[in-house]
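Hello again, I could really use a second opinion on something today. For a while now I've been wondering how a particular protein folds. Please have a think about how the structure follows from the sequence. Here's the protein in full, and shout if anything looks odd to you:

***
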Amino acid sequence: MIIKNKRLKLIVERIIDHQSIKEKDAFFLSSPEINIWDLLYGANIIREHFINKIHLCSIINAKSGDCSEDCKFCSQSVFHNAKVDHYPLINIEVIKNAYYKAKSLGADGFSIVTSGNMLSDDEINSISNIIRDINQRNNNNNPYVCISIGHLMLKHIKKLKKSGLTKCHHNLETSLNFFPQICSTHSYDERIETIKYLKKMEVKVCSGGIFGIGEKWDDRIDLAFTLKKLDVDSIPLNFLMPIKGTPLGNRELIPPMEALKIIALFRYILMDKDIRICAGREIVLRDLQSLIYYAGANGMMIGGYLTQLGRAVKYDLQMLEDLGLQRK
């Protein structure tokens, strides 16, 4: 193992031996004294040891705009003046068509995403019917159907699981301490509650955050350890895409190497979990996108991000082929 820093080398060796790192180790990893290439090299070793295949996911914006929440980075909030499409829950045929398109592109997971903090009982029934219909028509359940529909009560999760739901996305976004700086219309505890309900019902949880919103390294580390404590199954990492009309619309992008350092840090802390890179990777990482895997990621979202476009899927697939990475 060619890592110059002895402490860093020891940390990598312990992780490979399935020993979790401590918070003091995470702060050391985030410090300026660590050579970024050594940090990434270690992250890649950890990724290859635990997860050596790449996961691709895709989403559909199934209900857009008119969100009652005030998350400062989001274009769909009624509190902001971003120009986005507004429409209610779309019909099942449109969702099914998007699902089969994602399947044709090689996605492993397909998520139905809706705006708002919580869906009505009728909307939950519609989502349940959509999941059931897709699962019945697609015997191998590939890609699996995921949902991202806001806060969920236990009765909703039971209904959704009965329809065939196996995975649900619900981001924490940032640390407990920083969360009030980006959202005031609901609490961090509500988000934690939803995740705990999902875990209780044995539904896999996809939960991560967004970076470049003003948070510090302390917040990033705290988020990673919170997700570790909750034992979520996969972690989507997003980078702010400043959108005109939102409170963060004029915020500068974080530097590409800082973004890679964040990815690496999450791999060190969440050593054996799926870590996928989602919104913002194109504009933040630019020509360095392929380095997300060297930094420890083992997946990415393809095909766009709700109200914002991504790059053409063919370029993402070509990137994986050029890197010689195997897909799940």
